[in-house]
Design brief:
eleven-stranded mixed β-sheet; Rossmann fold; 323 residues
Length: 323
Amino acid sequence: AGDGSGAVAEDGEPPASARVLFPPTFSVSEIKNKQRRHFMFLRWKQQQRKEKLAAKKKRRKEREALGDKAPPKAIPKTIENQRVYDETTVDPNDEEVAFDEATDEFAPYFNRQTVPKILITTSDRPRGRTVRFCEQLSTVIPNSHVYYRRGLALKRIIPQCIARDFTDLIVINEDRKIPNGLVLSHLPDGPTAHFRMSSVRLRKEIKRKGKEPTEHVPEVILNNFTTRLGHSIGRMFASLFPHDPQFIGRQVATFHNQRDYIFFRFHRYIFKSEKKVGIQELGPRFTLKLRSLQKGTFDSKFGEYEWIHKRREMDTSRRKFHL
């Protein structure tokens, strides 16, 4: 009966007039009650997961039934594999690139004619966290030395570094007691790169970390530095480490570029068996984002810039990357 008395039809279902029918365009966000809306959203997400899992199982059974005749697996769409093509992408077999590598500022390091010697310094009056980060960074980069600014300008520090045969200068800047910037200047003639630094984790903040790193020269892994700009930045990082890694130390320094963010990790690998290899993170870890690349040594006022990151002009597409 449709008189609102709560009557029930003979088959146990409520009468048509008493049922609440949502329109086909109904959205959970239209529910006014916050708790009810949250509950319905969780139920909808759970239903979505069940349907996705069921479809996955169905596809797997179909592939097993077809055997060798099964079609190839579809490649999932990601921002990386939909990347907008960059005309400056480096071809390893390009003669022009090979000539540039043989004559650029980093050629003596890759030819083992020069041994890197690094000076690590900070902004004025660094706090404890920045000091500890510099000390741990010096244990990662062989033949590196930590000195504190004591009010000296970088323009005065650079000539002293050159006179003392330092090949690179690393400056760690901080804001509100947190490291937030890194300047890497190649001596004596540049170039100089300025990075924004984030997600800094010291060794004590890393879970399941390994024992302290040893003094062995680590291997260096550079991932996804594919453009001419990325190639230059990768060579800058590689020239910080001697090019004679001591494999007995089993230590690896990795610079992984993903969507123009450079993730640094420092690991030790462990042979569990002939087929299985495990890794231990040693720390520290941090993330870099390139802000500018400058010709010559550090000169913020009169320096000539090769590349500057301009967000409004360059970041027009999520699929456009520069490194």
